[in-house]
Amino acid sequence: MSGRPRAADVILGGGLVAGTLDIVNAIVFWRFYNGASATVILQSIAAGLQGKAAFAGGAASAALGLFLHFFIMLAMAALIWLGCRRWPLLVERPVRSGVAYGLLTWAAMNFVVVPLSRASAPPFIPAWFADGIVAHVLLVGMVLAFVARWSARRAKTYP
Length: 159
Description:
Blueprint: H1 7-34, H2 38-50, H3 58-86, H4 89-92, H5 94-116, H6 126-157
C-alpha cells in the first residue's frame, strides 16, 4: 500500500505537466489542420469568458487564454488529488483511473464547461474529436494518475 499523494506534487507538478502537454497538443493539431497560430488557439480559450471579442484582444486575450487553460488544468489536478485521498484504488490502479479520469475530463469540458462558456460551439471535426479523447486520456488522465501514484510512493518513502 502506498502513502497519500502530496497536494503540491499532484496539483502543481501534475497539473503543470498535463497542462503543458495538452496545450502543446492543441496548438500542434490546429497548426497542421488549418494553419492556426498559437495566439488564435489561446484566444479561443479566452473566448470562454470574452466571447468573440477575444479574437480582437491580441496578446492580452492570448495570455488570458493561457491563464484559463492552466487554471482549469490545475482544478482537474486538484480533483484527482482529492479523489486519490478518498479512494486509494485510484493510486493503486493508475492505468484504469487515468483512462477513466481522462474520459471524465474530456466529457466535462465538452458537455459542461464549453457549453456554459461564451465561446462558440466548435464544429464537429472527426480528427479533433479523436485527438481530444486520446489527448485527455493520455496527456491529462494518465499523467495525473501516474503523478499521483509517484507522489503516494514518495510520501510513503519520505515522510
